[in-house]
Amino acid sequence: LSALAEQRGDLETAIGQMQAALRYDPTSPYLRLSLGGLQMRRGAFAEAIRQAEEVLRADPRNVRAHLLLASAYLSLRNTKQAEHHFQEVLRLEPGRAEIYQQLGTLYAESKNFPQAVAAYREAIRLDPASTMARYSLGRVYLEMREPRQAIPILREALRIEPGFDPAAAALGFAHETLREWEEAKGVYRQALEDDPNNREFVERLAQAEVRSGNTPAALELYRRLQAEHPRDLNIRMRVGLLLFEQKLFAEAVEVFQE
Hints:
Strand content: under 5%
Number of helices: 16
Radius of gyration: 25 Å
Number of strands: 0
Distance between the termini: 60 Å
Structural class: mainly alpha
Order of helices and strands: HHHHHHHHHHHHHHHH
């Protein structure tokens, strides 16, 4: 019954029914952790923590309880406790790539970049096909202002998963940081081959054309965006400025007066 209520989105009813079931079987770790999971979804993190800690008192090796505590403490921004419970999971079940991925994210958000790099690299070692771990590692190198370290990692992510837009955006940005405009434009063009209507990559390509001095190509791209988004004042302004730069003054005035 609790599962049916949860499927309907009725968390209060689901929690009430799980609490009733727990009164009949108060020693069940499954029921207690299921209740904790429902409380997490409701945002009752302290209650979720209480349920998980109750399970750990009876069974300190319960991996699901440690995972629930790690998630709850992350939600409360208690990174020290979250890290502790993720490490406990790895102690009990070594080799879980997804936990290293979560630890990498925790360290990255705390600006602890060396530990983030180590965690993401371990995630990649354990799961060589993980594009998310490679993307995350590339992003950390960009945060560290080491774009040359990021580039091969992001390229490998795209080789494994062509069309992975976050990795393409990060790779293009890495090349732009190094003022490698042709390489950046190549990344954005490939992304648009995979997804021709992706506005983000059209804009990124247009901006790269501007920065590399190819105003006519940039103007063509912004004209395309203007046709697709006629009410976008920012795009209209860019078109007008590029027309002025091309000394097409009458056309520029017409754009600004639309």
